[in-house]
């Protein structure tokens, strides 16, 4: 049988708990062999894969990447999820998170939709998470948040160290001005008085991704959220997210979701909820969510949440 072993745990409630910045929607473990193929679907949550043994194929749009032992892969909301076993048995752990800051949290860690080396799977944390996710108690949901945050910290910490104050200032500037089409690596380098090459190297060392990729992800996630608002024309969504060329914007959306902006809008209106990262103008509300949730989660764990950028 292609599916050799599995354990899947879902949160009892359909939505994240009230006033939580994010929540663990599901988690589990798979052991599969060729020709096993996962469900081909588009989802409204963040999903992390962490390979324990063997290798499998993960698709990001039209890109195919091989996920090997001790590597992670990440999907963001509104992306097509497609993966399958590749040549040999494949074992991996996974988790999904949703809620108003689920995307913002993973973006802040500097993780893009790609494959990264992350070291040995924290099996003990995933097993603890599996026990908590199915528990309907509020305390269990908070503890699950803390463990998921720990897992994300380990995943991001293997290739990122977001402690560089200059990089943090650049990130704040991106969140403030991503709607300006003139904002790019060149203008950031000029504003902060640093060469483009040095900026890129420093940003990548701190965040595990390039400043250009970070900015593109920021614009794209806001665009996908705005496309759900039918009152906005496609060209207006493009302009609000830093894409002055509507045709180019359409190509970006199609490359990411497999659908045109209009097709994505029609599909998302009947298949997705609204719990995705929205405009940067909501950051003040996000910070209030972080402040309230941080106190709750810290009662269950020694971990602490970072300040939202």
Question: Roughly how many Å apart are the termini?
Answer: 47 Å
Beta fraction: 15-25%
- What is the number of independent domains? 2
Radius of gyration: 19 Å
Morphology call: globular
* Average pLDDT score: 81
What's the β-strand tally?
8
Which architecture of the largest domain per CATH?
Sandwich
**Which sheet architecture does the biggest sheet show?**
8 strands, antiparallel
Helix proportion:
40-55%
CATH topology of the largest domain: Jelly Rolls
CATH homology-level superfamily of the largest domain: Regulatory protein AraC
Kindly name the structural category: alpha+beta
Parts with pLDDT < 50 across at least 5 consecutive residues: 271-309
CATH class of the largest domain: Mainly Beta
Commentary on this structure:
By secondary structure, the chain is α+β, with helices and mostly antiparallel strands. Mean pLDDT is 81; it is low at 271-309. Strands 1, 2, 3, 4, 5, 6, 7 and 8 form an 8-stranded antiparallel β-sheet that branches. It starts with a strand and ends in an 11-residue tail after the last helix. 39% of the residues are buried. It has helices spanning 102-108, 123-133, 138-157, 165-177, 185-192, 196-207, 211-227, 234-240, 246-257, 261-271, 283-298, and strands spanning 3-10, 23-32, 41-42, 46-60, 63-68, 71-75, 80-98, 115-117. The protein has 2 domains: 3-157, Regulatory protein AraC (Jelly Rolls), CATH 2.60.120.280; 165-281, Homeodomain-like (Arc Repressor Mutant, subunit A).
């Amino acid at each position: 049988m292609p599916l050799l072993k599995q354990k899947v745990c879902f949160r009892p409630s359909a939505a994240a708990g009230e006033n939580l910045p994010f929540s663990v929607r599901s988690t589990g473990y798979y052991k599969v062999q060729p020709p096993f193929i996962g469900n081909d679907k588009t989802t409204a949550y963040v999903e992390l894969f962490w390979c324990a043994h063997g290798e499998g194929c993960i698709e990001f749009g039209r890109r195919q990447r091989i996920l090997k032992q001790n590597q992670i892969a990440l999907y963001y909301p509104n992306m097509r999820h497609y993966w399958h076993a590749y040549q040999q048995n494949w074992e991996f752990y996974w988790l999904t998170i949703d809620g108003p800051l689920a995307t913002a949290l993973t973006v802040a860690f500097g993780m893009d939709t790609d494959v990264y080396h992350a070291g040995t799977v924290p099996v003990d944390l995933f097993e603890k998470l599996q026990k908590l996710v199915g528990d309907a108690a509020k305390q269990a949901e908070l503890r699950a948040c803390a463990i998921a945050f720990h897992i994300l910290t380990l995943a991001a910490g293997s290739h990122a160290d977001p402690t560089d104050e200059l990089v943090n200032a650049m990130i704040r500037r991106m969140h403030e001005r991503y709607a300006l089409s003139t904002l790019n690596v060149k203008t950031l380098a000029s504003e902060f008085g640093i060469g483009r090459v040095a900026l890129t190297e420093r940003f990548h060392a701190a965040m595990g991704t390039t400043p250009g990729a970070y900015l593109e992800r920021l614009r794209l996630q806001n665009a996908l959220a705005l496309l759900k608002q039918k009152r906005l024309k496609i060209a207006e969504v493009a302009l609000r997210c830093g894409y002055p060329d509507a045709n180019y914007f359409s190509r970006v959306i199609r490359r990411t979701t497999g659908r045109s902006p209009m097709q994505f809008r029609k599909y998302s209106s009947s298949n997705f909820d609204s719990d995705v990262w929205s405009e940067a103008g909501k950051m003040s509300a996000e910070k209030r969510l972080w402040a309230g949730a941080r106190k709750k989660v810290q009662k269950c764990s020694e971990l602490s949440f970072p300040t939202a950028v």
